[in-house]
Amino acid sequence: MAGEQPMAGEQPTAGEQSTEPLLIRDARPEDVPLLLELLRELAEYERLADQVRATEELFDRALFSERPAAEALIAERGAEAVGYALYFPTFSTFLGIQGIWLEDLFVRPSQRKSGAGRALLAAVAARARERGAERLEWSALDWNELALGFYRGLGAQRMDEWVTHRLVGEALRSLAAESNAPGDGGRR
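Request: output the structure for the sequence above.
Response:
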């Protein structure tokens, strides 16, 4: 019913919101299994579950090694994780200054339209500004109207003139094998 709050222990359904305050915090090493669980939920939503190869070991190394490749934030209501953001630094040659690439922004379906996505994105934007970044970028699947509408509402600009390219697997290995650049360390 409209206006009713979930009883203790119940999960809010779409349209209902918990009265618990939202907390955005840095991910910790003990959160790696949770991050993988959330990633798998994101991949399922994006119809890409068959492409997930990440493991706890890979995530731990990427997020918590001496030179982390990325950082993550977790959104919580009470004891429940409701979403996460994973991001890493970029650099703009045109601006001559760093930016941030938001790789993942995911909020569990029961918590969508609760402010969790906006709070996660605002926290990433604040990190960018703290570091002197002038740009925060991400991509979204062209069919994900819920996300696209959310981003439009924030004032984000679509970059339709840019096309993303990717080398993976054999194509990446083949190109790397052509390198004779100093410092490639034989990583072929």
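Residues 74 and 148 are 22 Å apart (CA to CA).
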